[in-house]
Amino acid sequence: MDFDTIAAISTPMGEGAIAIVRLSGEAAILIADRLFKGVNGKTLAEQGSHTIHYGHILDPKTGDVVEEVMVSVMKGPKTFTKEDVVEINCHGGLVSVNRVLQLVLSHGARLAEPGEFTKRAFLNGRIDLSQAEAVIDLIRAKTDRAMNVALGQMEGRLSRLIRRLRQEILEILAQIEVNIDYPEYDDVEEMTHSLLLPKAAYVHEEIKKLLQTSQQGKILREGLSTVIVGRPNVGKSSLLNSLVQENKAIVTDVPGTTRDVIEEYVNVRGVPLRLLDTAGIRETEDIVERIGVERSRQVLKEADLILLVLNYSDQLTKEDENLFEAVKGMDTIVIINKTDLPQQIDLERVHELAKEHRIVTTSLLQDRGVDELEEAIASLFFSGSVEAKDATYVSNSRHIALLNQSLQAIEEAIAGAQMGTPIDIVQIDLTRTWNLLGEIIGESVQDDLINQLFSQFCLGK
Ligand code: GDP
Ligand code: ZN
Q1: Pfam families, alphabetically (predicted)?
Q2: Which of 177, 263, 325, 396 has its CA 20 to 30 A from that of 428?
Q3: Statement: the pTM of the whole predicted model exceeds 0.90
């Protein structure tokens, strides 16, 4: 395909000492050569592909040195966009990187639209749509773990799996065609039905598995909703504060964060947590007392993780026991706080009540035990509920919707085959499944959908 040459600052604004101006397109090297003067006197066009060169950017009008730079030259098609790509690494901060960008733009390049580099990679066949979407997720990824998910997806795991399923369906469809071509067998319909059923069941199973991962994907992107419960004065607010202080709070742009339920996002060793802020916590303080064990169980069920706080220097009360009852079967970590004070609590009873739940002792006042708590949170979610990072996660709502539709289509095909529906009807459902899966990897999408997706990108990606 033929595109003009685009350019943008491709490093986050104001972050880091190095800023990169990236160019992509047929004239990328030519434009860079109009501005770049290398120390060895050679032009960039004379250099080999995938090489990096030290020199200066000069303003051709005045001959002034604008910036000291390292310039990478990458010739297509072995680049992210499959086009010629030049990256100008600037050291002098925002002002000079902007001057370099302005020069590039006044010497033949056009300012890239948000997401346009990735869009080109897609249009030039370098990546498929689900990989492009993974880049969007990557840009938005709020935590390390979400970043890994996005990266894994970018490597094409999901795409490979979807391709395999489509291939499976194609084989079923081919089988049907073959059988239809031999109508001399009068039991051909029945035979075809029984042949396709196990294969269709396999596809059905795989789609279902993928959908099950979507819940985890959502958790990883939005944070595990974490509720801190405990009697008044045990140290819930202190716990929230120390988790927020020790871990960089994640700045979130998630809509719906209202004044009365403020949420704190923190990243605990790669586990994103959505903690209820004090307003919310005050509400849960006497939750059991207010609404009873059954109701509070319902409320707590919405949480992905519960931190149940007890007071080491106080005896267990009926309220504590009720809390244990309320969190039964949920992912819970029991925290025995105030260990700096004399012991009053019956530890044996706590172990009895806690059963399978992990117990951590802390003195939040003396800043002790928080590391162990963080370790417990991380191991709970990386060894248990949340699978190892090489799993395929589906975390994109468009993918989830398409997978749900695919699941429904394949279910209809299976039901049809089981009921002896005419084979051409079953064929329609199978083809529909194939098309829906194809949409996930961008093999049957309309142009406007593509544009809509790419316009969500940040500038320079
Ligand atoms: P909440 O009512 O459960 O939210 O409890 P707070 O976090 O507001 O704490 C209640 C009181 O206990 C405050 O005065 C805290 O400073 C104090 N506190 C919290 N953690 C500890 C601790 O580990 N040791 C001691 N001695 N006091 C603590
Ligand atoms: Zn409190």
Answers
A1: MMR_HSR1 (PF01926), MnmE_helical (PF12631), TrmE_N (PF10396)
A2: 396
A3: no
